[in-house]
Write a sequence for this structure.
């Protein structure tokens, strides 16, 4: 150790380099998969279109027919982009939540953020504010405000108890059941139309997404991912446990609080436009961990890519399953995700890690 | 004095564990010994800035005992807890010891320090193994390596010999001793084995009931009286071939004991 380390001797640890190389390859493969499903998704819909047509329409709009432009740009692209943005956002939120709470079950859903958003949306619907022209906007605002309020409660209680991870988790679960009960109450009070609107929102849907909404999601997503990636080494250290992370110089309490705040905004923004979409935040980090291990420089982007791919594929199925009607995407993410998830959990296979 | 500890008090949930611990030392290798619940871990945590406390700690004239000293790599601290059984490799885990130097990719310099530590502690065969595949002793060695690659000036270790077999214990002591000779590292360890403490340390601090009972060279500290007062055991102290005290314990002096 203390012996002078000659700067010219070569590194003996080839294992680490090949491990990193493999991880980069997995990230690249996931990125390619993401692009491929993106174009396939653009081609899928009630009016048929080939993947090549969808591609040329998007890349060279001048050469496409006005009908093709309408279908791709006005109908399909906003939903697909939203699927990417929300998929990435929920997966990213789940990924860092699992790390800071040291719990493989943590995700926006388990902390009650999604159910509080659902309550907010339902409240706006039942109060009839959505009857006005800008109905969707008010529903989104209601969902956002409520989920931020839920996060504030979690944050304050966490702060009171010096950011103890069990406290955070238990508070989140309490909030989940509270809003679930409140939501049921609202459903009981709602009339038929309102009820179906609440149910529709709860299932989650990309079909009402607009490009403006996507831009908002994207902005929050970019900001959050930069913050999280900036701290990736600290998160990796935190995986070893609080005591070890602190001994390595990580301010565990500050990191946990900061992360909680960013996750709150990220999740609230993601769910307020498209409704509650569960499971993405849970499975994407697990798949990512299977593929690239615990190093958060790889784990964070991989989680996002997996989240995007899963939600795009779900979006694709939602257009096919009950065509021409659109099947709720929130149901599909679980139906697609669960079997794959079981496969990963039960087969002891690990890939790169 | 290199290390000065003045009036350290701390506690858990209103119950005071340390009642003003004061000592100072110029020794390179310090062992902290004492019975269970004497406050050894708390003392080390306070010095490492990992626990809220009253009083002052300084090292080479710099006030430590704060998280900042750990973040600045002046102080290294190896906690008693095991690492979580994560799926990262031994190499990755040890590399985390260089956390305060790494921005995005670890530099060649960081990598060489890690390579070197792995070699010194004979961890080469398990470098690419995952943490969750290791035995308790191997995990302990990884923890030690992680603390060493920080290259601290003051290294605080909470029961580093846990789970280690006799050979690994001696190897670990040897690595720390070489570091103290070559780089001037000051190491302070909590040890349970008094004979190992005598072998390793230049100076021993005996904690009892949250206070310093005695401090001094192994020969002065390890006495029948101390063993009776602090540990409540009936024991003989003999000299080994290097002239170091060696404890032969016969039984507990407390109610229910054999003597």
């Amino acid at each position: 150790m203390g012996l002078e380390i000659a700067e010219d001797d070569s590194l003996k640890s080839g294992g680490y380099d090949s491990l990193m190389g493999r991880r980069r390859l997995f990230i690249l493969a996931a990125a390619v998969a993401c692009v491929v499903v993106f174009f396939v998704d653009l081609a899928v819909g009630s009016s048929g279109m080939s993947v090549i047509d969808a591609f040329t329409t998007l890349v060279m709009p001048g050469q496409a027919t006005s009908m093709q432009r309408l279908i791709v740009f006005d109908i399909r692209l906003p939903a697909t982009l939203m699927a990417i943005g929300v998929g990435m956002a929920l997966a990213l939120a789940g990924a860092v939540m699992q790390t800071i709470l040291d719990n493989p079950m943590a995700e926006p859903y388990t902390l009650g953020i999604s159910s509080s958003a659902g309550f907010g949306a339902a409240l706006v619907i039942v109060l009839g504010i959505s009857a006005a022209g800008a109905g969707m906007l008010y529903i989104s605002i209601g969902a956002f405000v409520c989920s931020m309020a839920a996060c504030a409660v979690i944050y304050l209680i966490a702060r009171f108890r010096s950011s103890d991870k069990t406290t955070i988790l238990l508070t989140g679960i309490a909030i989940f059941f509270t809003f679930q009960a409140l939501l049921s109450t609202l459903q009981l009070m709602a009339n038929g139309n309102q009820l179906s609107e609440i149910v529709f929102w709860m299932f989650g849907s990309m079909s009402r997404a607009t490009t403006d909404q996507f831009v908002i999601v994207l902005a929050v997503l970019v900001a959050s991912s930069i913050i999280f990636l900036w701290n990736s080494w600290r998160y990796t250290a935190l995986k070893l446990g609080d005591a070890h992370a602190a001994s390595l110089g990580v301010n565990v309490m500050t990191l946990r609080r900061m992360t909680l705040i960013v996750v709150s905004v990220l999740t609230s923004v993601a769910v307020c436009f498209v409704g509650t979409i569960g499971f993405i935040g849970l499975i994407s980090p697990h798949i990512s961990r299977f593929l690239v291990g615990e190093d958060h420089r790889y784990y964070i982007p991989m989680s996002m890519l997996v989240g995007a791919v899963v939600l795009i594929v779900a979006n694709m199925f939602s257009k096919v399953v009950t065509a021409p009607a659109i099947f709720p995407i929130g149901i599909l993410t679980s139906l697609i995700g669960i079997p794959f998830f079981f496969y990963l959990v039960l087969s002891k296979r690990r890939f790169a890690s | 004095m290199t290390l000065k500890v003045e009036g350290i008090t701390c506690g858990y949930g209103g119950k005071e564990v340390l009642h003003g611990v004061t000592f100072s030392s110029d020794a390179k290798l310090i062992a902290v010994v004492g019975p269970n619940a004497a406050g050894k871990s708390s003392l080390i945590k306070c010095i490492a800035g990992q626990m809220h406390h009253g009083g002052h700690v300084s090292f080479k004239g710099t006030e430590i005992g704060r998280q900042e000293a750990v973040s600045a790599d002046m102080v290294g601290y190896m906690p008693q807890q095991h690492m979580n059984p994560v799926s990262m490799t031994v190499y990755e885990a040890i590399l985390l010891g260089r956390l305060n130097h790494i921005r995005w990719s670890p530099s060649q310099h960081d990598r060489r320090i890690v390579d070197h530590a792995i070699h010194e502690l004979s961890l080469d065969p398990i470098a690419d193994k995952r943490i969750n595949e290791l035995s308790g002793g191997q995990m302990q060695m990884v923890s030690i390596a992680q603390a060493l690659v920080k290259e601290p000036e003051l290294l605080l270790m909470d029961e580093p010999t846990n789970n280690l077999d006799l050979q690994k214990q001696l190897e670990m002591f040897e690595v720390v001793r070489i570091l103290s000779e070559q780089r001037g590292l000051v190491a302070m360890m909590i040890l349970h084995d008094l004979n190992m403490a005598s072998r390793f340390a230049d100076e021993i601090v005996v904690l009892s009931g949250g206070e310093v009972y005695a401090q001094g060279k192994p020969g002065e500290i390890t006495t029948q009286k101390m063993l009776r007062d602090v540990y409540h055991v009936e024991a003989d102290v003999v000299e080994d071939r290097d002239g170091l005290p060696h404890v032969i314990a016969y039984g507990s002096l407390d109610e229910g004991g054999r003597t």
